[in-house]
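Run folding on both entries below.
>entry_1
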Amino acid sequence: MPLVKINGVEIEVPEGTNMIEAARLAGEEIPHYCYHPHLTIAGNCRMCTVDVEAGGRGPDIACNMVARDGLAIRTDTENIKTIRAHVMEFLLKNHPLDCPICDQSGECRLQDYYMDHGDMDSRLADPKHKKAKRVDIGDKILLDAERCVACTRCVRFGDEVTGTGELRLFQRTDSTEIGIFPGERLSHDYQGNLADICPVGALTNKDFRFTKRVWYLRETESLCGGCATGCNIQVCHQQGEVHRFLPRRNDHVNDSWMCDPGRDTAQKLEPPHRILLPRVEGKAADWDVAAAAAIRELGEGKVGVVFGAQGTNEANYALLALARKHLPGARFFLVEGNDPVSLSGSDKLLIDEDKNPNRRGAMLIGELSGQLEGGSALRAALVGGDVTSLLVLQDDVLGRLGVDAPEGLVVLATHRSVTTAAAHVLLPVCAHVETDGTWINRRSRVQRFREAVWVRGEGRPGHAAADALAVAAGASVVPNSGDRVFAKLAAEVPDLAGLSWKSLGSQGQPLVVPAAPEPTSEPAAPAPA
């Protein structure tokens, strides 16, 4: 690995690292506008200029400078401070300075860098050059060209990520203006990323615009539950209310992006869509009463247990433990496909056809039963009367299979569906932003999400809801904390060996692939004739 020196401090960095990222590894931030780790280098803002002491020319831009042995830079010289101040003055020459009414205020790099690297009085005597304001260029995005600093991040995103290429810089000199081709309109499913990567307030998201000042919001690491990709996100919330989802960088999963349908799932976390109270035959009931009623329903018939591809690994394991101990003879199912209300479609970037965030985990746990069956088997069992009582975790099986409810139907759910409407006993489960847990995405990466907001109604974490049924049946089956449930699961599943909530960290870990058995020294027996 190359050994470089940054402000006199030597550090080894991975091959191919540019000096902005090398400085970040050394604990130094080099200011920048046009550079983005998942876009090509443009080198047009010049804000990342540094002095080169050895191994190159200087001053030079850090974004286009690749680390190599002997390279030494300084980010804090008087010369560099002057250069950055002049860059800031140039960028602010025609800027409207409308920070109090700008929706980007509080997370604007122009504001932040002015305080750190500008902080000077303007020498401009002439009127500012006016440009287009509040231009509706897409379903999700508004453009204010006056605020643009011509970093071209949005242009490169359209060219390199979505491949749609609608945005360009038009005109020249101080008339340069970001815009969209005449007659074109943003129509792809990744428009929100344009607002995310815009370092100023030129591109803003309609859904979030003027809803909340960002300095009031707290951020919690989580995952998107919109499909099997498992994009890493930040949940932005205040006083128990989720205001937006933002993508969180994970180079193993989603780079720095997320789709617009994934962002829209934040709107389905509120009460009109949610199951808030335990219910028995449609009437509100206490948890203990509902759990006891559920056990009676399940004890009076031929039981089927449906694992939830939208439930956590911890909840699915608790469901399996409940069935093992208290529901002898139960059959186990995992139903293919998506709930009827799910949006269809997929692409080659992030959106997966499977809209369930944890099908891989539910299948892994279901296989521990030794007899996991699919949707066609469940349909036949329900129609033929081979299953007369059904325990369902976070799955709209009736809506998906198009069958009538069995004689006994117990459902653990977060959101309303055809199945919850037909349930004889309905138990509320926390949404993923209300609890801690893990999912396994389509690429078999185990990832953790964290509690961000308080629980709506009387919902319980999925593993706790399943264990409440076990307690009603006579004995608890899993610990009362999710991390300890995961530890029991990891001890039983070879693919999870050695993993824990702590080891998953913020980026997750791939499933452990069991080693192939060692070949024996004895020759294989001949096949029978």
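>entry_2
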Amino acid sequence: MHSSLPVRTNLLTIAWLALLFLALALVVALAPVHLQNIATDWQITAAAPALPDAVSYSVFINLMLALRYLALAVFLGASGLIVLHQPRNRAGWLAAFAFLFMPMVFNLTGYTESWPYPPPWDQLLGILYGLAQLLGIAGLVLLIYIFPDGSFRPRRSAWFAGGLLVLLLGFSIAGRFIPDGGGFTWAGIMILLLLLVTGGLVSQVARYRRAPAMERRSSRGFVIALFLLLAGTVASILLSVDNQPLPTLVFLFLDLLLFCLLPLSVAYALLRYGLWTGEPTPSRRAVSYYLTGWATLLVVGLTALFLAGGQGSGAAAQPVGELAWDKPPIPLIVDTDLSMDDHLALLFLLQHPGVDIRAITVSGTGEVHCEPGVRNMLDILEMLGQPEIPVACGREAPLSGEHAFPDSWREGADTLYGVELPAGTRQPYPGSAVELIQSVLAEAPEPVTLLTLGPLTNPGEALEAHPELATEIERILIMGGAVGAPGNVGPSTPEIDNQVAEWNIYADPHSANLVLRSGAPVALVPLDATNFVPVSMAFLNRLEGNRTTPAAQLAYDLMAARRDVVLSGTASFWDILTAAILLDGSLASYKIGGIVVEEAESPLSGQTLLDENGPRASYAVWADRMRFEDHFLQALQR
């Protein structure tokens, strides 16, 4: 009945120990990310409104963390139990190896779109984590098809499973390398996984019906667990597709239980019936301890959820921090190129009580063209019932050079990515952006802050024509540059040979130097900091559940319209982080140095360089993702 192993048991044990070390290392490396991000996990935030009023959001989060790590312990415990009993069958060793990495397939240890570690560790961990997930998927699939005797039955099921595994690998690779293919590949992966599990269940049922009585007894629990896992997964997808709070909350707990049934059923068969060893446990105590231990802790956890709260009444429905601002509003000019991220930053600022926006100037050298950009901005201001803020545009060519954003990007910004606005009646400022900047600075009774979210053409031209304006500026806060981080021009536009520049600086390097050398206090929020606040589906889902104002609804519509960008994992909250830092500098940490921009046309054009002889400026090097996202959401809901 049992097939012999072609390699020695002690070598397999050594291999298992090595993979156990890898799994534990990945769990430890993921832990800080998991602990930080679980509060914004889309399932957690979607389920929060269904919690009882007496249960605080923090209690709920801590419980889910505890249960996930408990489930991890169940998988690792089952794996160790199999190795301890030295199975005599390849299916037993496969189960021991597969259980090490299945928790990562089910995201029990958390997940991350960007590792918060310096190069090359971030890339190395990303590769190892991807490999671990592939091993977990392959191990799960093979175990489903060859349990319990180590062979495919019927044999043609091997071709079915192998073909689907190859397709699954192809979709996984496509998701990383095909632009804008995230949603398609994710759907393909889910369909293939369901087909694989369904085929495995059919194979197991056919095997079970023909197996001897002893084998049926030992595999019965596994077959039942497999059926429940498949049924639960399908039900979870169907009933939670709209992120309804109660179904999502139910399946958060149910999925954990269903995931753990596989290792629990194998452990039971091993201890009770001597599966793969021929040595059943005479006493049922070990079986009872193993099976009831996790169930007891689950019951205790659920009891804690509903009885230990009491300090968080209503918190579950609003899982974001409080927005407080007790200082006088900051007088502000916003210079923007009105990409999606710029619009989100402006919605944040328009809703925030801490700013007094005196003017909005549009950079025609950025993503949007002047006429549609100004019209969109005026219509948004009118739709949101904002005061009559003057809006003007500047020139559409840089002060020097011919750098330009891709036409496809500009077309999207011009049309607001397909989001329709009610036609407004407000009219633009009659002069240019430079004239508007000069007018506001001259008329303001106090220094005004200049926030730039696009290329620096408008402020560069204004400060070149009127150097005295620098004394009227409180400070210039720039979203731009890449000081110690790679640029984003070449990676986002392969036809441009430039790996060091950031787009806002690259579009007009000469204007950037004019601003840096103007004498006004300058601070930059470069890619060094914005890389810590990636745009994610978790945040989009969280925003979807917190659309209580027209501004929040518009922010969601804009992000949903660019879902392809969100799924790609290549975008960050560049401009929104800069706007948030304007109001709360503690969201980031900083360095100070001399900064210059490379103007010469070359693959280094637009590079932001540290130069001890250059003009001094501060630049952000890190950002607090969780607090930033809370600030953003809370402002939108105001």
